[in-house]
Amino acid sequence: MAASTWLRLPPRLPASSSPPTPVRAVPEMSSAVISARHPKVHPCRTAATTPGRAAGSRTYRADLTPVAPIVRPARTSRGGTWSRAPRTPTATEGTAPSRTTPRTAATAGSASVSVVAAVAGVALFVIDARTHRLPNAITYPTVAAVAVLLAAAALASGTWDAALRALLGALVLGGAYLLLHLVNRTGLGLGDVKLAVLLGLVTAWYGWPVLWAAAFLPFLIGGAVAIVLLVSRRASRGTALAFGPYMLTGTALALTIARALGPG
What is the DSSP string of 243-264? Predict the structure, then answer.
C-alpha cells in the first residue's frame, strides 16, 4: 500500500463471552502529504478515549465541505435563568420616534402668522389703494390674532426671546410712525400707525434686520413711485398717495429676502 494510505488497526481484545464491539478503521494521512494536496485542511486532535489512539494524536480529515455558521438558539438556560440571545434589529427599529422639536414648532407658528398677515394685508392693500383708509375692523383683529399665534409658537418652542423681540419691534415701529404722524398729520394717518404696529410685530419675530428693512423699504418704494408719477405728469406735488400699500409691499419684500437668505 502507499505511504499516504496506512491504516491503523485496532488492538486485539481479550477473549470474553460477549462478541467484541466492531471498531471502524480511520484512514490517516501524513501532514506533509495533506499540506501538499489540500492546503486548507486543518488537523484536529482526537480524544484520549478513542480505541487504538493515544491522547492528543493528530489525524486529518479531508472534508472540504464549507461549514455552516452556528445559529444560536433564541433562548438559552444558564443556571436556571433564561437569557435571550441578541437578535438582528428590523428595518423599523433603531429609528428615533417622531416628535415636535422647538425648531419645527417655531416654523409652524411663523407659517400660521404669515398666512394670517398675508390675508389681512391683501385686504388692507386693496382698501387703502381705493379709499385711502385702513379700517380698524381688519387691523385690530389681525394684530390680536398675530399676537396670540406668536405667543403660542413661543410657548411650544421655548423661543421667548423671539416673542419679546416681536413685542419690542411692534412698539419701535409703531412709535416711529406715531412720531411721523405728529410731525405731519396730513402725511401719515393713524391707520398707518396701527398698521405699523402689526408689521413690526410680524417682522421683528424674524430678527431685527428684517424689521429695519421693513421700516426703510416702504419709503424707498414710495419715493420711487412718486418720482415716476411726477415725471410722467400723472400726479402733482399736491396729490395724496396712500402709504399703506407701500408699507405692505416693503414688508413683503423684506420677509421674502430674509427667507431667501436663510437663517443667520
Answer: SHHHHHHHHHHHHHHHHHH---
Percent of the chain predicted with pLDDT > 90 = 46
Rounded distance, CA 15 to CA 20, Å?
A: 9
Residues 141 and 257 in one domain: yes
Angle of helix 136-157 versus helix 190-206 axis, rounded to 10: 20
The pTM for the full model equals 0.60
Total structural domains within the chain? 2
Q: Which domain holds residue 249?
A: 103-261
- Dist CA 254 CA 109 (whole Å): 19
Residue recorded with cell 410712525: 177
Neighbours of 48 (CB within 10 A): 10
Q: Quickly state the pLDDT bin for 71 (edges 50, 70, 90).
A: low
- Are 33 and 4 in contact by the 8 Å Cβ rule? The answer is yes
Question: Is residue 54 domain-shared with residue 154, that is, in the same domain?
Answer: no
Q: CA 54 → CA 6, 8, 22, 59, distances in Å?
A: 17, 12, 19, 11
For residue 85, being part of any structural domain is answered with: no
Cα–Cα distance between 225 and 220 in angstroms, integer? Answer: 9
Task: Judge whether residue 64 has pLDDT over 70.
Answer: no
Residue 198's pLDDT is what?
Answer: 96
Q: Nearest Cα to 105, choosing from 165, 160, 164?
A: 160
Q: What is the dihedral of CA 97, 101, 104, 108, to 10 degrees?
A: 100
Q: Is the alpha carbon torsion for 254, 255, 256, 259 positive or negative?
A: positive
